[in-house]
Write a structure and sequence with these properties.
- The complex is a heterodimer.
- By secondary structure, chain A is of the alpha+beta class.
- Chain A folds into two domains: 28-117, Orthogonal Bundle (Cyclin A, domain 1), CATH 1.10.472; 138-221, Roll (SH3 type barrels).
- Helices cover 27% and strands 15% of the residues of chain A.
- In chain A, strands 4-3-2-1-5 form a five-stranded antiparallel β-sheet.
- In chain A, helix 1 runs parallel beside helix 4 (68-82).
- Chain B is mostly helical.
- Chain B has two domains: 2-71, no CATH class; 88-243, Nitrile Hydratase, Chain A (Alpha-Beta Complex), CATH 3.90.330.
- Chain B contains 13 helices and four strands.
- In chain B, strands 1-4 form a two-stranded parallel ribbon.
- In chain B, helix 5 (89-101) crosses helix 12 (219-225).
- Classes of the chains: A alpha+beta, B mainly alpha.
- Chains A and B meet through helix 1, helix 3, helix 4, helix 5 and helix 6 of A and helix 1, helix 2, helix 3, helix 4 and helix 9 of B.
Chain lengths: 222, 245
């Protein structure tokens, strides 16, 4: 979707807060929030929307205003409420309804280390699909405007680039208009190099490039 | 949320209040600086007696989910411990230092980042497919995720606030040289800037240039020089860590 999250190339967002030490959490609540998100993550509706899409459909003003971990917490709460595992009354009072059913944790402390080191690859090394493009070939990012989740940034659409790497076959991640996964369409993913001038015009440095990894469905012959 | 900090949390709707408060702030201020204002509010809030509104909401949610039996507090502690002491930019720094002292390793790292990083014991979630890009006197690499906040967790840990912020995500692709100047790095016009927008499943690590004057340093000493920012591509490595911001 053409949402506020797709912000590559936008102006007016202000200066970057460059001085920041390497600690992962800068306030206690950030660590608690991240831990809570990981610990309660498996609870929610049986049919899951794409989690990136869940962020993308937040109202733009809210998306910009909320801190990263705050956004995740809001989405966790939304999911739990949708699945009727949490009520507004509980949120208002800060206490669990004594009549609410008791659950068992689905994530235990022992599972954390394993979760962090587990590979969850979307690459489909089990499949053989002929690539539609070859390294060195010129391509154009298609001018498409899907309303669901997509990984083709707006600033690349319609622009011409060159295939520099074929990363193999990956499951396609675009969703339907409601954020639910489409039938699997595994396809090649390529790194495509665009010149800064192709994307941003004559004032860009003539040497500079911008690369992205794009699924084959996003590309057409130049 | 600056304008809600002094409102008693118990009397307001818990999370639904966020939307109303947001609209007020955004209407009255520059949207782009909202995240920065948040950050400043948080920093000012640290060490003060009154916790922020969001801190109270997170604490309440934790209590509710623990009470319901859905969450074990020890699991939250384990997550924090993992990201504070096991997974972070020191992992990436050891990869960089190895590449600086071991030419064969450097070649393997650039040819197959995932496998070479796994040699040092690092890998997993958000680092399944690693590509390492090398800075040279002629090429400077910069990593961003314009659509969200994709970042190579196994080697760099969780992303810093600026990496997730609208100012960085919006500008890194259209004005990388301006972004670099903001971080204190000024590149000559004839240096090529390559920006890597992490749009799919590849995660990037920048192999910075080894600074001059470090020829006698051990691998461990070299690793101590390598900053997180240098491995994202917004800084260079200095022979004295204090000068490399």
């Amino acid at each position: 979707m053409n949402g506020i999250h797709d912000m590559g190339g936008m102006h007016g967002m202000g200066p970057i807060q460059v001085r920041e030490d390497e600690r992962p959490f800068h306030a206690e609540w950030e660590g608690r929030a991240w831990g809570l998100i990981r610990a309660a993550g498996p609870f929610g509706p049986a049919r899951r929307r794409n989690f990136r899409y869940e962020h993308e459909v937040l109202p733009p003003a809210q998306y910009l205003q909320m801190q990263y971990y705050e956004r995740f917490i809001k989405l966790l709460v939304d999911r739990l409420m949708t699945a009727k595992l949490l009520t507004q009354a509980e949120l208002d009072s800060g206490r669990a309804d004594p009549a609410s059913p008791k659950s068992q944790p689905r994530v235990t402390p022992a599972m954390i280390a394993e979760q962090a080191t587990r590979r969850r690859s979307l690459r489909r090394d089990d499949l053989r699909i002929q690539p539609g493009f070859t390294v060195g070939q010129d391509v154009r990012a298609r001018n498409i405007n899907p309303v669901g989740h997509t990984r083709l940034p707006r600033y690349m659409r319609g622009h011409r680039g060159t295939i520099v790497t074929d990363h193999g076959i990956f499951d396609f991640q675009d969703t339907d208009a409601d954020g639910y996964a489409l039938p699997a369409r595994p396809q090649h993913v390529y790194t495509v190099s665009f010149t800064a001038r192709e994307l941003w015009g004559e004032t860009a440095n003539a040497r500079d490039t911008v690369h992205a990894e794009l699924w084959e469905d996003y590309l057409e012959r130049a | 949320m600056a304008n809600e900090a002094d409102t008693p949390v118990g009397r307001r709707k818990f999370l639904s209040g966020a939307a109303a408060g947001t609209a007020g702030i955004v209407a009255a201020s520059n949207m782009g600086s909202a995240e920065q204002a948040n950050q400043q509010t948080r920093e000012q809030g640290q060490g003060q007696a009154a916790p922020s509104d969001v801190a109270l909401r997170v604490k309440a949610l934790e209590s509710i989910l623990v009470e319901k039996g859905m969450v074990d507090r020890a699991t939250i502690d384990a997550v924090i411990e993992t990201y504070e002491s096991k997974i972070g930019p020191r992992n990436g720094a050891s990869v960089v230092a190895r590449a600086w002292v071991d030419e064969a390793y450097r070649k393997r790292l650039l040819a197959d980042g995932t496998a070479a990083i796994a040699e040092l014991g690092y890998g997993g979630a958000q680092g399944e497919h690693m590509v390492v890009v090398e800075n040279t006197p002629a090429v400077h690499n910069l990593v961003v995720c314009t659509l969200c906040s994709c970042y190579p967790w196994p080697v760099l840990g969780l992303p810093p606030t600026w990496y997730k912020s609208a100012p960085y995500r919006s500008r890194a692709v259209i004005d990388p040289r301006g972004v670099l100047r903001e971080f204190g790095v000024t590149l000559a016009e004839d240096v090529q800037v390559r920006v890597w927008d992490s749009t799919a499943e590849i995660r990037y690590l920048v192999l910075p240039e080894r600074p001059p004057g470090t020829e006698r340093m051990t691998e461990e000493q070299l690793a101590a020089l390598v900053t997180r920012d240098a491995m994202v591509g917004v800084a260079k490595v200095s022979a004295s860590r204090g000068a490399a911001a």
